[in-house]
Design brief:
Elements lengths: L5 E5 L3 H12 L3 E6 L3 H10 L3 E3 L11 E4 L3 H7 L6 E7 L13 E9 L16 E5 L2 H14 L3 E3 L2 H31 L8 H13 L2 H4 L3 H4 L2 H10 L4 H19 L2
Parallel strand pairs: 1-2, 1-4, 2-3, 4-5, 5-6, 7-8
Antiparallel strand pairs: 6-7
Length: about 260
């Protein structure tokens, strides 16, 4: 039965780096890294014993899978220069339809690892949800089989489900990270170290592992403690933008818990 053994990765950013290393460490052969910046392609290729190029015309033709692991905004442009005929090609984007790859090959799909990645802090894949979509049952089988070599959590989902999953991830990850940035600025301005918040941040993350978000939320808005919220807003009077964020979110929390 056919399986995926040889892989080409297009991209050398944070996701591409983590994915390439995970595949390499699990016995898959990375035969080429393709990236517009040759230096980044070279660095990643050396880590996974692959060849490299910054020219799509030089892409290897004998791989079993081609993974486009670049920013969502760049996919539509890069696929204009790709023609893989009947090779299996996937992208890793959260918001892009699977069907954009029709012009590249008759075999296509999505291989979407749901995680935040960094080049400097390599993430273990075994607990990362890997979401699969494919244009045929056979391609789905191949991608699921590949996903299961990396992760214990492989899910088949549709493009519309993936898009909503991506939005949910923005709320729970990106927006919360921005809240940490605000907190860091406020603490720094008051000569306080950010690490004072770290046990609280960790405990907050732990709570949603064992409680529903509805039950995990605490704080003055959850209690509808208007005196505390008013004082906080006054303290933020020198930061109008932070004040607006505080008020907007607090109002929605109060509405959810006390006016429903």
């Amino acid at each position: 039965m056919k399986s995926i053994k040889k892989i080409v990765i297009i991209g050398a950013g944070s996701l591409a780096t983590n994915l390439a290393l995970a595949l390499h460490n699990n016995g898959l052969q990375l035969i080429q890294i393709v990236n517009r910046t040759i230096m980044n392609a070279t660095i990643l290729a050396k880590r996974v014993n692959a060849s490299f190029t910054n020219n799509l015309d030089e892409i290897e033709q004998n791989a079993d899978l081609y993974i486009i692991a670049i920013a969502d905004a760049g996919i539509s442009e890069i696929i204009k220069s790709m023609n893989l005929i009947d090779k299996l090609v996937v992208h890793t984007a959260g918001t892009i339809e699977m069907e954009v790859l029709k012009s590249v090959s008759c075999n296509y799909g999505v291989f979407y690892p749901l995680q935040t990645f960094s080049k400097t802090d390599i993430t273990a894949f075994d607990k990362i949800p890997v979401c699969i979509e494919a244009n045929s049952p056979e391609n789905a089988r191949l991608l699921i089989e590949l996903g299961e070599k990396l992760s214990k959590n492989v899910q088949s989902i549709t493009s519309s489900q993936r898009k909503m999953l991506h939005i949910s991830a923005v709320f729970s990850c990106n927006f919360s990270s921005y809240m940490h940035l605000i907190a860091h600025q406020l603490l720094t301005e008051n000569q306080l170290p950010f690490d004072l918040l770290q046990p609280l941040i960790l405990r907050t993350a732990e709570k949603v592992q064992i409680l529903q978000p509805e039950d995990a939320l605490t704080g003055p808005a959850r209690r509808n403690d208007t005196a505390v919220m008013d004082e906080h807003l006054q303290l933020l009077s020198n930061h109008i933008e932070f004040q607006a964020i505080y008020k907007l979110i607090s109002d929605y929390i109060v509405k959810h818990y006390h006016q429903s």
